[in-house]
Amino acid sequence: MANYGFPLSSGVENSRVTSPYNVRRAQFNNRIHGGIDLVANSSWVTQFSQPDLLATIGGTIYLVKYEANGFGNYCVIRGVDGYYHIYGHLKTPAPWSVGQTIQRGQKVGDIGTTGHSTGIHLHYEIRQNFADKATRLDPCQLLGIVNETGPVQTTGQGAFIFNGGSSQNDGYQVAVPYDYTYEELRPIADSLQSADRLFGRRCRIIVRDDDGAAMDFTNLHITFQIVKTYLMDIQYSVIKIYNLSRDSEAFVLRKATTIHVEAGYEGAYYGEIFQGDIIQSFGYWENGTDFIMEIIAADSERFLNAGFIANHMERGMTQRQAAEYITAKASIPAKINSISDGLKENALPRGKVFFGMAKDYLQQIAGNSEATLYMNNGEVNLIKATDLPKDSVLKLTPNSGFIGQPQQTELGIKAKCLLLPQIKVERCVQVDNQWVQERQITLGSLQTKLDPQGIYKIAKVTYTGDNRGSDWYAEFEAMSQSGYLPALLANSGGNPF
Ligand SMILES: [Zn+2]
Fold this sequence. Notes:
Glucose Permease (Domain IIA), binds zinc ion, 11% helix, 3 domains, mainly beta, elongated, 9-stranded antiparallel β-sheet
């Protein structure tokens, strides 16, 4: 259980609640009180003067602001618990800058009566989502005090209470500080409009056969739904090409084996989103007017389902070398894209005969190190959920990227955004918590907090496109990266979904 500090330096035994949480107050137009008001006992004030305001939990300074008709000088801490802790009516602006780290028990500022206030007191309020007052929490429940006017009484329930001064954040798994590099996504002109214009969208579709012959269908009407994930279930992608010629139809039906899709927008946000093996193609008429060639494809389908290995490997090879060997020597070979640095480095104690599916051996190697095997555009990746990002972290905001509001999920977030090739499996995105719609959670349960740094690793992407219609977006699911890695991920080699 979390340990929250008491926010006044006068301590629990020398303080009073002057206005409880969630009551209507006549002197404030009968509005609901969103926090609790606290003061030091007058005898304590006489002896020691006014108390200091102390951080109830460590975190990051989120806001230092003045509002004449509201909280006056106020300071908001984004706690390591993921909540926003508001300190209102400070005497002077809090001596903190946004982004600074504050420890539990450190002084936030001086108690005061600025803003809409009738006397010196602290207004302390907690919200799950700073922008949404409906997400307020009962601060008394977290502090473990009784929500009643009068001397502060501890409940012994819920959170453990102590008097401020400690700088420990025990009870929390604090995010590992890591120096991420960020890439700010620039807004793309007109990208969010929808009508029958194309708004600088761009895509290219090429189908190839095994002899290297290729056909480019970019100029035809094309729709696609492409799924990429590091789940090892085969994920089928569907690409429809409208009204292709008889020759093209024959090529797709009889000869084509692979399909390649590039998509995005004119400029920097364009690139390959899919390269896969064609599993099935068939043509049909739609509404009697359009002839549609539907292509079902999957990433690395042939390597996964027909890549066979029958070789002998010398003793002394590392896991990494074994993975490289198997991938290269399979009857349908592939390339390695990336192998986690977290792969165990123990070498083969003796020579080994490989005879079976390359995929099965690669999965064994992955399993030995609690890693995951996944294929991306025909290449092998062995990754661990805890791997640090290789690319810069892509910052997404409602002005640049998102369509609608991201939602919190059990293990992270899911979101819909512009169709950008940069949105891809294993890429990390940074999403400020204030944009995320949080799941309804039980008070006191901490396992599904939003990532404190707002960093998530993409585990699944679905690209939906129509080069003559309105659909042009990517939907992704991403996992909390640096904060509260769920126990199931930390302890098992299983897939995160
Ligand atoms: Zn108040």
